[in-house]
Amino acid sequence: MSEFEVEPIPGLPALLPDGEELLWQGTPLWVPLAKRAFHVREVGIYFGVLILLRAGFILSDGDGWDVVLGSALWLVFVGLVTVAILSMLAWFYARSTIYSISSKRVIFRHGVVVPIAVNLPFKSIESAGLRVHSDGSGDIPLALIAKQKVSYLLMWPNVRPWHFSKAQPMLRAIPDVEDVAELLADALKAEAEAVPSDVAPHHPNSASPESGSTSGAETASADPLATSSSS
């Protein structure tokens, strides 16, 4: 039995301390996750192009459609199996992931084979972004202060794509993302205002809780959520 099977609250490895409130929990939508993290659409297009090229080569050699169908069937089979496996992985990842936002931090609990929890206190978050996709789901990447680092591989797929050197944890493929972004912005603002501005930057331990992955992170004020959208 893993520690996550006895979570006091699903997604939280322990009860929150007194004075800290759980504001929101959510999980990724598996279909958007399959499209944007596992790239099932691009994989399907890739196999489609392979099939067309194969058919073109066979026809250019003077063979008939019966030869084309016989030759392309195995590519169709391999393509369908590949897309099915990637879709199944996306479903498992979505089911094993829980994002939590409290009044003090953001918590990622994820992992299919080896579940892990990554705890990001608000003081370790430099800024947050928002990306809304045409299907209504969206992403909230979190830029961290310089001394707070996370592993890209450890966080994947809950990480902003292509930001390898300074990985940004990301709440990915979540529904009602604009409402969640507004909630997070309000929580970050409230936490920043609760820490005296003349004390916070010079006393890293003045706010709790501490991160589970690193220590000694300096207090940082959080920028309001910057909003962008894509189709």
UniProtKB/TrEMBL annotation:
Protein name per its UniProtKB record: Uncharacterized protein
InterPro entries xrefs: puhB_PGC
UniProt organism field: Thiorhodovibrio frisius
Chain intervals for the UniProt region annotation (Disordered): 194-231
Domain of life, per lineage: Bacteria
Transmembrane portions of the chain: 43-60, 72-94
Ranges of biased composition (kind: Low complexity): 210-222
Keywords tagged on the record: Membrane, Transmembrane, Transmembrane helix
